[in-house]
Design goal:
The protein has helices spanning about 5-20, 35-40, 55-70, 85-95, 105-110, 115-130, 145-150, 180-185, 195-205, 205-210, 220-225, 235-245, 250-260, 265-275, 275-290, 315-325, 330-335, 335-345, 350-370, 425-435, and strands at about 20-25, 45-50, 100-105, 135-140, 170-175, 295, 310-315, 380-390, 395-405, 410-415. By secondary structure, the chain is of the alpha/beta class. It folds into three domains: about 5-175, P-loop containing nucleotide triphosphate hydrolases (Rossmann fold), CATH 3.40.50.300; about 180-345, Arc Repressor Mutant, subunit A, CATH 1.10.10; about 370-435, no CATH class. The strands form three sheets. The chain has a five-stranded parallel sheet. A three-stranded antiparallel sheet has the order 8-9-10. The longest helix is centred in the last third of the chain and has 23 residues, at about 350-370.
């Protein structure tokens, strides 16, 4: 099922309509739908598509050669090209004036086993493709590699790859993020509204994760099958992603574990994992750049200067895994995952956990309404607020806040994930807290 991604499709179509050589860098976490997007875009267009594998350079070049021969109708037994430069030059010559879409999927898999491949693509762009109508799309799941080697925007030495970017060749870049709640819900059309919130809080907006949900089963059954069985498709997913992209996956996993357990300030995290606070910053920066963790401050405060900043896992599937699955790995390995899941899913911990993500869904709704002009004000900043209530001298928080710069207007909201809710009392309290 293909849903959403209209903005990205429109961007690709606009570039394609311009003609001439175009190079688009498409990157994002694995399972997020990069291949599906390129397939959707290339429908009805002449397309040469190749997916690199985790194998040595000679095998990737041989596979690429066969794909090129197949696309251009040449004998498959011709033999591999002598080099990547020869292969790319051949593609450019064969393409001629054709408006060819050329997708090189999982570029990092090939480039990590050939240190010169990035510079080879630089040469190919300058010498072979620049005068063609080839629409080149380089995709990659290793976000660190794509940012450092291709985009030249990353500043962390912890991510795989070294700084040697393909400067000046790209005409566009697209970071493909997981779906927000609206599009995630489209992937589960037969699921009721309450369960949609539960699924989003558990699986997040990664299309592949959502595609694993069996709508014939209930929420509890799907969670137990996918997270709490050794053969479950999401049982080892977070650890596998960290191992794929990071040099010290154990340290990063420990940080995520600490945050999931409630440590949300640098010193608290450092104390929990036994690291010095001074050495923690680089790891947190990397997790933020991977869009797994975010730093939040009360709305209106400077992100870099605020002393009230807190860190949280911003990917629901990772938050769920580290909060509920990781502590029970020993039981799952003993084939007791079903018992653990049954007890967990009947506890009060799940509604509390889902409630936090319901606040996030509500904030997404406010942003969407603002973008479509459906609010009585025109806010440009969105978030939440926490701090000391000056009238009561006690700690308080406001779940949703949206502010307008041009006029002194605020939208404030209270979000409750519960069956019984006194709206009048909540509204009165909210007005009091908002001052």
């Amino acid at each position: 099922m293909f849903v959403g991604r209209q903005h990205e499709l429109d961007k690709l179509e606009t570039l394609y309509a311009q003609g001439g050589f175009q190079m688009v860098v498409l990157y994002g976490r694995r399972r997020v739908g990069k291949t599906a997007l390129t397939m959707r875009f290339s429908q009805g267009k002449p397309t040469l598509a190749f997916t690199a594998k985790v194998q040595n350079d000679a095998l990737n070049l041989a596979d690429f050669s066969r794909q090129v021969y197949k696309h251009f109708g040449l004998p498959l037994g011709t033999g591999a090209f002598p080099s990547w430069e020869d292969a790319l030059a051949f593609v450019a010559r064969q393409a001629g004036d054709q408006h060819l879409v050329f997708v090189f999927d999982e570029f990092p898999y090939a480039a990590q086993h050939n240190a010169s491949l990035v510079s080879t693509f630089q040469i190919a762009c300058d010498r072979f493709f620049s005068s063609t109508n080839v629409f080149l799309i380089l995709t990659g799941s290793n976000q660190g590699f794509m940012e450092e080697k291709v985009l030249g925007t990353a500043d962390s030495g912890e991510r795989l790859g070294q700084k040697d970017p393909l400067f000046g060749r790209r005409t566009a870049q697209i970071h493909l993020a997981p779906f927000g709640y609206r599009n995630a819900a489209l992937m589960l059309p037969d699921v009721g509204s309450e369960d949609l919130v539960r699924y989003y809080a558990t699986f997040g907006g990664t299309p592949y994760y959502l595609s694993m949900v069996d709508p014939r089963d209930n929420y509890a059954t799907n969670v137990e099958r996918l997270f709490f069985r050794k053969e479950g498709l999401l049982y080892e997913e977070p650890i596998m992603l960290l191992r794929q992209e990071l040099r010290e996956p154990a340290v990063y996993s420990s940080i995520l574990d600490a945050i999931a357990a409630g440590a949300n300030k640098p010193q608290e995290i450092a104390n929990r994992i036994g690291e010095k606070r001074t050495s923690l910053a680089k790891y947190l920066r990397t997790l933020v750049s991977m869009h797994l963790v975010e730093k939040r401050v009360p709305l209106g405060e400077d992100l870099s200067r605020s002393r009230r900043g807190i860190y949280r896992i911003c990917e629901p599937a990772f938050a769920f895994w580290y909060r509920f699955v990781q502590p029970e790995i020993a039981s799952v390995e003993m084939d007791a995952g079903e018992l653990v899941a049954r007890e967990l899913l009947q506890s009060d911990d799940i509604p509390t956990y889902v409630g936090h993500w319901f606040e996030d869904i509500c904030l997404q709704w406010v942003v969407w309404q603002a973008k479509h002009g459906a609010l009585p004000l025109r806010p440009v900043r969105f978030g939440s607020w926490w701090g000391t209530d000056p009238s009561a001298w006690e700690q308080t928080d406001i779940d949703v806040v949206a502010s307008s710069d041009r006029r002194s207007e605020l939208l404030v909201g209270e979000c409750k994930w519960r069956r019984k809710f006194d709206e009048a009392r909540a509204a009165q309290n909210l007005v009091h807290r908002a001052g």
